[in-house]
Amino acid sequence: MDTIDTIKEQIGNNPVLIYMKGAPNAPQCGFSARAVQALMACGEKFAYVDILQNPDIRTELPKYANWPTFPQLWIDGELVGGSDIIAELHESGELATMIKAVAKG
Ligand SMILES: N[C@@H](CCC(=O)N[C@@H](CS)C(=O)NCC(=O)O)C(=O)O
User: Fold this and answer.
1) Residue 34 burial (CB < 10 Å; 0-12/13-18/19+)?
2) Are 71 and 82 in contact (CB under 8 A)?
C-alpha cells in the first residue's frame, strides 16, 4: 500500500486520530505533549500515529493535509489542526464536545 493510501485508511478508520511525535505516554516534542494532554483530558479513546516511527507519513501527510507541522488532530475524517488550535478548543470546552459526539456515533 502506498503512503497516501495508508494515511487515508488511518484517517477513515479512526474517528479521533492524532499524528504526533512519540506516543501519548512519551511524547517527543512539546507541541505533541500539549496536544495529547488536552486529548487525554477529554476522557475518550483516541488513536495515534508516531510520525518519528513512520518517516514516509511524516513526509507525505503535510502535503496531503496541506498543513505543514505536527501534531495533527483529525476528527471524523477532517483535519482539526495542530497544538495551538487543540489548546484553544480545549480551553473553550469544544474539544470534549467534538470528541464525545464522534465517540457516540
Ligand atoms: N504552532 C504549531 C506548532 C507545531 C510545530 O511547529 N511543529 C514542528 C516541530 S514538532 C514540526 O512539526 N515540524 C515539522 C517536522 O518536524 O516534520 C501547532 O500549533 O501545532
Assistant:
1) middle
2) yes
CA distance 64 to 102: 23
Is the interface score ipTM higher than 0.90?
yes
Separation of alpha carbons 39 and 59, rounded Å: 24
Q: Which protein residues are within 6 Å of ligand 1, measured from CB?
A: 21, 29, 31, 58, 69-71, 82-84
What type of residue is 23? A
Ligand 1 center to residue 46 CA distance, Å? Answer: 20
Length of the chain: 105
Answer whether 0.95 is exceeded by the pTM. yes
> Are 41 and 90 a contacting pair, CB within 8 Å?
yes
Q: What is the pLDDT of residues 17-51, one digit of tens each?
A: 999 999 999 999 999 999 999 999 999 999 999 99
How far apart CA 60 and CA 53 sit, in angstroms, is 14
Is residue 60 exposed (0-12), middle (13-18) or buried (19+ Cβ within 10 Å)? middle
